Amino acid sequence: MERVGAARDLVLGYVRALSAIDEAMRVAIPSLERMADVVGLARSRRIRRSDHVGAYSYMVHGAGCRFVSDNDTEVDVDFAVDGSEVFDLWRLRC
Question: Domains of the chain: which residue ranges?
Fold first, then answer.
C-alpha cells in the first residue's frame, strides 16, 4: 500500500507542477490559450524552441515540451492532437 501512496503523491505533484507551469506561461505569453500552443508557437518561430520564462526554462520537442523550474523540478509533457496533455507514467521518478 505504501507504493500506491507514493505513486499517488508523484502523480499529484506532477499535476500541481504542470498547473503552476501553465499559469507562468500564460502570464509570460498572454496569447497562449492552452499549453499545447507552446509547440505551435515554437514551430512558427513566434517564440524560441528553448528559453526561460519566469521560474521555468523550457525546451519544445516533437509533440511536447520539457519544463525545468529554478528548483530543478522537471515536467515533460506531450500533447495530443486535440491539445490535451498526455500523461506518461514512465516519466515520473522518485
Answer: 2-87
